[in-house]
């Protein structure tokens, strides 16, 4: 029974809270590790559970609603509570549990058995009520962590925050938030940008066979150790290196030689590149559409008191390739 009790404690008080925290925070950001060793898992779960545990413990003792709901039970006096837990402890440490709960023919044994069942019922209800508020606090902490992490780009690029508040958030982010977020999430998403910024992550990927691709990062995949296993691209182009080198030799006087005509669009909605075939990876921010540049130009003109109707945005028609594959990622 002691082994069973220890397993119950580890599962319900350490492992499950860690799972709840990861699930709640992963709704906003991707954590660094999803699968840890038992020691890492226990350390992580204890660290994230300390404050929720203290809040739930104080709440079930002093908060009016948390003291009675859910799983109502006749609380009685403090001495009666202690007696209930003493009885349950005696049952769990007993070598013969059936004897403690089955009773006997005598009236004394029946009374003792009834008292044991009553104490067990009270303790189970109290534990269920505590775990309910404990898990709710863990979930709230996970959501709060995810929200604070998702605001990182907004806070780093905003000039409307008070300096003291910004310094406090930056310290919190560097000490607690960023060390627990996957590095690939920070690199392959717009985590570092304000959410209002209309940009996406563009990737140039050189494979081991010297093929060069570029496209918009749609998703990425990591293994249980947090290592990158592959990248999913959309709007993919492949660079025709041999044709480019041959054309560049024909007109050596043109420097730099334009490369746009030699990017060939790949007719695929999704293009997966496994990590094992990646020789070099280059990432950059790119505007989602020309409207981003137009809106930025309009804002600048408005600040300068210039009528937008009097100004047109020029496009580089010379970059239009014979194959109609302009570089939309530059």
Descriptive notes:
This protein is an alpha+beta fold and 330 residues long. It has 2 domains: 2-150, no CATH class; 198-319, SH3 type barrels (Roll), CATH 2.30.30. 52% of the residues lie in helices and 15% in strands. Strands 1, 2, 3, 4, 5 and 6 form a 6-stranded antiparallel beta sheet that branches. Strand 1 (199-207) and strand 2 form a beta hairpin. Helix 1 (2-26) packs across helix 2. The protein is elongated. Mean pLDDT is 79; it is low at 290-294 and 306-330.
Overall mean confidence score, pLDDT: 79
Number of strands: 6
Beta-strand fraction estimate: 5-15%
Which shape, going by the Cα principal axes?
Answer: elongated
Number of helical segments?
A: 11
> What is the domain total for the residues?
2
The helix-strand sequence is: HHHHHHHHHEEEHEEEH
Q: Low-confidence parts lasting 5 or more residues at pLDDT below 50?
A: 290-294, 306-330
Biggest β-sheet strands, sense, barrel? 6 strands, antiparallel
By helix and strand content, what is the structural category? alpha+beta
Task: Give a brief description.
By secondary structure, the chain is of the alpha+beta class.
Write the layout of secondary structure elements.
Elements: H1 2-26, H2 38-62, H3 64-68, H4 78-93, H5 97-102, H6 107-150, H7 152-156, H8 163-177, H9 183-188, E1 199-207, E2 212-222, E3 228-239, H10 241-250, E4 263-265, E5 271-274, E6 278-287, H11 290-303
Helix pairs in contact: 1-2, 1-6, 2-6, 4-6
């Amino acid at each position: 029974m002691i082994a069973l009790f220890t397993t119950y404690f580890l599962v319900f008080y350490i492992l499950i809270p860690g799972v709840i925290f990861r699930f709640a925070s992963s709704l906003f950001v991707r954590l660094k590790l999803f699968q840890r060793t038992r020691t890492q898992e226990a350390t992580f779960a204890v660290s994230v559970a300390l404050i929720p545990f203290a809040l739930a413990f104080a709440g079930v003792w002093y908060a009016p609603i948390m003291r009675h709901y859910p799983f109502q039970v006749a609380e009685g006096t403090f001495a009666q509570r202690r007696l209930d837990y003493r009885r349950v402890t005696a049952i769990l440490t007993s070598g013969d549990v059936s004897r403690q709960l089955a009773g006997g023919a005598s009236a004394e044994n029946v009374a003792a058995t009834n008292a044991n069942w009553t104490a067990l019922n009270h303790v189970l209800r109290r534990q269920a009520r505590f775990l309910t508020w404990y898990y709710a606090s863990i979930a709230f902490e996970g959501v709060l962590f995810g929200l604070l992490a998702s605001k990182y780009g907004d806070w780093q690029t905003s000039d409307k925050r008070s300096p003291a508040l910004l310094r406090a958030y930056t310290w919190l982010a560097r000490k607690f938030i960023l060390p627990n977020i996957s590095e690939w999430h920070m690199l392959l998403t717009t985590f570092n940008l304000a959410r209002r910024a209309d940009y996406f992550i563009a990737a140039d990927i050189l494979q081991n066979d010297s093929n060069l691709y570029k496209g918009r990062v749609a998703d990425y995949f990591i293994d249980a150790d947090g290592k990158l296993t592959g990248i999913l691209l959309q709007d993919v182009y492949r660079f025709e290196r041999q044709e480019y080198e041959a054309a560049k030799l024909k007109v050596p006087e043109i420097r730099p030689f334009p490369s746009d005509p030699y990017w060939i669009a790949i007719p695929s909605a999704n293009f997966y590149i496994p990590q094992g075939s990646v020789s070099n990876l280059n990432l950059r921010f790119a505007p989602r559409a020309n409207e981003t540049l137009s809106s930025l130009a309009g804002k600048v003109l408005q600040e300068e008191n210039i009528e937008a109707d009097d100004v047109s945005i020029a496009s580089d028609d010379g970059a239009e390739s014979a194959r109609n594959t302009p570089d939309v990622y530059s």
